């Protein structure tokens, strides 16, 4: 069976001993005769549900190594899907071998700060995904408590849709929804405390869970990277204004100001935007892990 890909992504490379399964916005997935999965993070970058034609140097390796750091730090809370980081040389540092999981059909999001789609919903009903919040909060406000704000899993090119706990329970079952909520908040709060000790605010993050062959709930995909999280600079955090971030905000800002209509293929990124974005990913890795990439 041949694999399939996503519009805007180049063909996945051939890797000896591995059969291509599919290509996502950032990752290429392969399988072998042992039913293991080779998860390869490319240097592709996406924004506004498009894969951009320009890549960010070392991005895939940084995402992979940062995920490995967090998986190890958090493995006492929940098991993860990692089998090994001993991968073929052509994808060294940017790939891991993982267990196949039967994935839950919701995105598990935790928020400790108000921004993005949460802020939009808050302005309309003073709640986010069914979580009532105090009046007077602004963009970047810290929430009284971290909240679970699940979302549906969208097809590539579509938006995830925020849902409340009851809707999540209808999708995965009430017992599993409660377990996923509790795990999500425990992981988020542990990671947020650690990040804060490194001078970084973890404003929100997304986890994906599945069941392994033995039925155990297992953390999969990536964990706590700048692609799946909002990392802010603690020293300059100021509610009510734009926050200094460690993600692809330079890319989003350039595309917004470029006149691109977000309906046709996106433009190439200027060298300056590429360099600034790569530097922010590398800085996030250094600040969190304490090691230069």
TrEMBL record:
Coiled coil location: none
Record-level GO cellular component terms: cytoplasm
Enzyme Commission no: 6.3.2.6
Pfam families per the UniProt record, alphabetical: SAICAR_synt
Keyword Ubl conjugation: no
Keywords: ATP-binding, Ligase, Nucleotide-binding, Purine biosynthesis
Domain SAICAR synthetase/ADE2 N-terminal: 21-265
A single BP term in Gene Ontology: 'de novo' IMP biosynthetic process
Record-stated family: Belongs to the SAICAR synthetase family.
Protein name: Phosphoribosylaminoimidazole-succinocarboxamide synthase
């Amino acid at each position: 069976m041949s694999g399939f890909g996503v519009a805007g992504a180049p063909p996945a490379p051939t890797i000896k001993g591995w059969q291509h399964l599919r290509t996502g916005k950032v990752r290429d997935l392969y399988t072998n005769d042992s039913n293991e999965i080779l998860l390869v993070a490319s240097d592709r970058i996406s924004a506004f549900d498009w894969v951009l034609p320009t890549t960010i140097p070392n991005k895939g390796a940084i995402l992979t190594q940062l995920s490995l750091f967090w998986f190890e730090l958090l493995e006492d809370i929940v098991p993860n899907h990692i089998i090994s980081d001993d991968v073929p040389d052509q994808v060294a540092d940017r790939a891991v071998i993982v267990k196949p999981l039967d994935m839950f059909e919701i995105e598990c999001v935790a928020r400790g700060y108000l921004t993005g789609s949460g802020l939009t919903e808050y302005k309309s009903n003073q709640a986010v995904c069914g979580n009532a919040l105090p009046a007077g909060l602004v963009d970047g406000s810290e929430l009284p408590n971290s909240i679970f704000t699940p979302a549906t899993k969208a097809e590539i090119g579509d938006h995830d849709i925020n849902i409340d706990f009851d809707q999540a329970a209808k999708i995965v079952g009430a017992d599993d929804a409660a377990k996923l909520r509790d795990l999500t908040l425990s992981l988020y709060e542990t990671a947020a405390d650690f990040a804060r000790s490194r001078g970084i605010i973890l404003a929100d993050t997304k986890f994906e869970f599945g069941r392994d062959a033995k039925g155990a709930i297992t953390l999969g995909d990536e964990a706590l990277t700048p692609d799946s999280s909002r990392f802010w600079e603690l020293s300059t955090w100021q509610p009510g204004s734009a926050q200094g971030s460690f993600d692809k905000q330079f890319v989003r800002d350039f595309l917004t100001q470029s006149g691109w209509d977000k309906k046709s293929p996106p433009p190439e990124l200027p060298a300056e935007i590429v360099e600034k974005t790569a530097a922010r990913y590398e800085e996030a890795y250094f600040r969190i892990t304490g090691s230069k990439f």
